[in-house]
Amino acid sequence: MPGRSSSNSGSTGFISFSGVESALSSLKNFQSCISSGMDTASSVALDLVETQTEVSSEYSMDRAMVEFAMMDRELNHYIKAVQSTINHKPNLSLSSPAVTGTTHKAVK
User: Fold this and answer.
1) Residue 36 to residue 91: CA distance in whole angstroms
2) How many CB atoms lie within 10 A of CB 68?
3) pLDDT for the residue 102
4) What does the angle CA 102 – CA 107 – CA 108 come to, to the nearest 5 degrees?
5) Which pLDDT score is estimated for 83?
6) Alpha helix segments (H runs only) across the chain
7) Cα(53)–Cα(1) distance, integer angstroms
8) Which of 3, 73, 82 is nearest to 38 (CA)?
9) CA count, 13 A, side-chain hemisphere, 96
């Protein structure tokens, strides 16, 4: 099964999040690209205003900024959800005996 580790010191049911954490790291790096895009769109919009350049409505800087803001917000929500899942600690009191280390003897 994807994400499962079969050789982890005898632990059964251990889920490895190393691939997820790697992808999460890449997404965090992508946040800087979104930020750079927002800065560039702001700079272009300011240049257009300063030079009083007429631009057709299909090249709306407002729309570009809104799209960057939406991408940033959605990416932040996704990253927080994945981090929350990775950091979730199971309730050990409900774990199976193999996980807690207790054993039960058969009743004769």
Assistant:
1) 42
2) 20
3) 47
4) 150
5) 87
6) 18-50, 61-87, 97-100
7) 57
8) 73
9) 6
Q: One-letter amino acid identity for 19?
A: G
DSSP-based three-state secondary structure for 74: helix
The CB density around residue 23, as the number of other CB atoms within 10 Å, is 12
CA 74, CA 51: separation in Å to the nearest integer?
34
- pLDDT interval class at 6 (50, 70, 90): very low
> By the 8 A CB rule, do 24 and 82 touch?
yes
Residues whose CB falls within 8 Å of the CB of residue 76, separated by 6 or more in sequence, listed in order: 31
Task: Pick the closest to residue 88 from 15, 13, 26 (CA basis).
Answer: 15
The two structure tokens encoding residue 25: 């790291």
DSSP character string of 45-69: HHHHHHTT----GGG-HHHHHHHHH
Compute the distance between CA of residue 7 and CA of residue 74 in angstroms, rounded to an integer.
Answer: 36
